[in-house]
């Protein structure tokens, strides 16, 4: 979900008032028919848009590696301690983490008791509800339009899919009617500028780049250019780094300070791209980057290639930074907004 400035649609043309028909000549009175109650059909439940349904099918397929081992726990005939022990092991193997696993098991047992459920298959549905409620605080829309330009700084370690995610995010924004300017501030990696330039070309957007330039200077120039050109969004691609590389983490802080000099209210969003394959290491990255940059949102990629998608629950329990987008593929359209209930249901499908 995005919020953009949009032109109001034109008002429909006025409908002319009907001309009253001439009164008929008086005739013998006729008995009025009996009044019948109006029959109103109940409104049909809104169907998911075709593109969203296609995404949900991809999400189910993408989370199959993570969810299959959890779902098999509910194929037995009894709800007993053995079932909960198997579920605990499955959740931990999916990198849900100790704290989130303990929370989910306690919540699930409470739901089972309150609903008086006796069917293990029904317990799976209750677990989906528990996961959806745990993840609900992470479901938050990326709002564009409160600032012009909205400056979005994007960080992440090398290999997480950061630059590719920026390309996909640019596509999302452009499809919603926003004008985007890219900043190639990842000047440490030789091919980063060229890779971002390819995404700029695919999405038909402008890019600010300098060969061998200082990342902070490139970011400053891009924000200044975005303001001067009236762009809706400036996306700043920063260099990939490990949170243990303290000098590089300080470079990120410098970029943030310099961006603030170009626009006193910026950056308006600080996003971290994390690779779902890394499991608990992804949680470590979230903690480290949040401490350094005060993250406002996450983009989780490559969930289709991992059995460790439970880390989303660990993040919700231990460092609840909103998840704006999740990805389950390499195509431009394979990045979508995060929905807690969709994720929970797809995980246990």
From TrEMBL:
Q: What is its EC number?
A: 3.6.5.4
Q: Which residues form the SRP54-type proteins GTP-binding domain?
A: 322-335
Q: Which portions of the chain have biased composition (kind: Pro residues)?
A: 10-27
**From the Swiss-Prot or TrEMBL record, what is one GO molecular function term?**
GTP binding
| Gene Ontology annotations for the cellular component aspect, listed alphabetically | cytoplasm; plasma membrane
Known catalysed reaction(s)? Answer: GTP + H2O = GDP + phosphate + H(+)
Family matches, as Gene3D superfamilies: P-loop containing nucleotide triphosphate hydrolases, Signal recognition particle SRP54, nucleotide-binding domain
Subcellular location(s): the record lists:
Cell membrane; Cytoplasm
Q: Which SUPFAM superfamilies match?
A: Domain of the SRP/SRP receptor G-proteins, P-loop containing nucleoside triphosphate hydrolases
Q: Which UniProt keywords apply?
A: Cell membrane, Cytoplasm, GTP-binding, Hydrolase, Membrane, Nucleotide-binding, Receptor
Q: Quick one: a GO biological-process term for this protein?
A: SRP-dependent cotranslational protein targeting to membrane
Give me the residues that bind GTP, please: 156-163, 237-241, 301-304
Q: How does it sit in the membrane?
A: Peripheral membrane protein
Q: Where is this region: Disordered?
A: 1-28
Which InterPro entries does the UniProt entry name for this protein?
AAA+_ATPase, P-loop_NTPase, Signal_recog_particl_SRP54_hlx, SR_rcpt_FtsY, SRP/SRP_N, SRP54_GTPase_dom, SRP54_N_sf
* Keyword flag NADP: no
Q: What is its main location?
A: membrane
Q: Does the keyword Nucleotide-binding apply?
A: yes
Under PROSITE patterns, the record lists:
SRP54
What this chain does, per the entry, is described as: Involved in targeting and insertion of nascent membrane proteins into the cytoplasmic membrane. Acts as a receptor for the complex formed by the signal recognition particle (SRP) and the ribosome-nascent chain (RNC). Interaction with SRP-RNC leads to the transfer of the RNC complex to the Sec translocase for insertion into the membrane, the hydrolysis of GTP by both Ffh and FtsY, and the dissociation of the SRP-FtsY complex into the individual components.
Family of this protein? Belongs to the GTP-binding SRP family. FtsY subfamily.
Subunit architecture: Part of the signal recognition particle protein translocation system, which is composed of SRP and FtsY. SRP is a ribonucleoprotein composed of Ffh and a 4.5S RNA molecule.
> Can you say what this protein is called?
Signal recognition particle receptor FtsY
Source gene?
ftsY
């Amino acid at each position: 979900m995005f919020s953009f400035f949009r032109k109001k649609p034109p008002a429909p043309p006025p409908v002319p008032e009907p001309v009253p028909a001439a009164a008929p000549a008086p005739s013998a009175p006729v008995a009025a028919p009996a009044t019948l109650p109006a029959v109103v059909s109940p409104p049909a439940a809104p169907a998911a848009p075709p593109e969203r349904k296609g995404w949900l099918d991809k999400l189910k397929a993408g989370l199959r590696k993570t969810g299959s081992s959890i779902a098999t726990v509910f194929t037995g005939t009894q709800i007993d301690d053995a079932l909960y022990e198997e579920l605990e092991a499955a959740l931990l193997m999916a990198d849900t983490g100790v704290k989130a696993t303990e929370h989910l098991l306690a919540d699930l047992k409470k739901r089972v008791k309150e609903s008086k459920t006796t069917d293990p298959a029904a317990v799976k549905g209750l677990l989906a509800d528990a996961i959806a409620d745990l993840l609900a605080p992470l479901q938050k829309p990326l709002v564009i339009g409160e600032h012009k330009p909205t400056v979005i700084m994007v960080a992440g370690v090398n290999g997480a899919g950061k630059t590719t995610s920026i390309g996909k995010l640019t596509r999302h924004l452009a499809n919603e009617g926003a004008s985007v300017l890219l900043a190639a501030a990842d000047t440490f990696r030789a091919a980063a500028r060229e890779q971002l330039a390819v995404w700029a070309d695919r999405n038909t957007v402008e890019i600010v780049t300098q060969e061998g330039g200082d990342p902070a200077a490139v970011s400053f120039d891009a924000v200044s250019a975005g303001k001067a050109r009236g762009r809706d969004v400036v996306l700043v691609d920063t260099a990939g780094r490990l949170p243990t590389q303290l000098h590089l983490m300080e470079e990120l802080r410098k970029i943030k300070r310099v961006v603030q000099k170009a626009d006193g209210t910026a950056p308006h969003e600080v996003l971290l791209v994390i690779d779902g394959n890394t499991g608990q290491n992804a949680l470590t990255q979230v903690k480290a980057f949040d401490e350094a940059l005060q993250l406002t949102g996450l983009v989780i990629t490559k969930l289709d290639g991992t059995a460790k998608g439970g880390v989303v629950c660990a993040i919700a329990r231990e460092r609840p930074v909103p998840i704006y987008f999740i990805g389950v593929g390499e195509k431009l359209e394979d990045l979508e907004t995060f929905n807690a209930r969709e994720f929970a249901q797809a995980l246990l499908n």
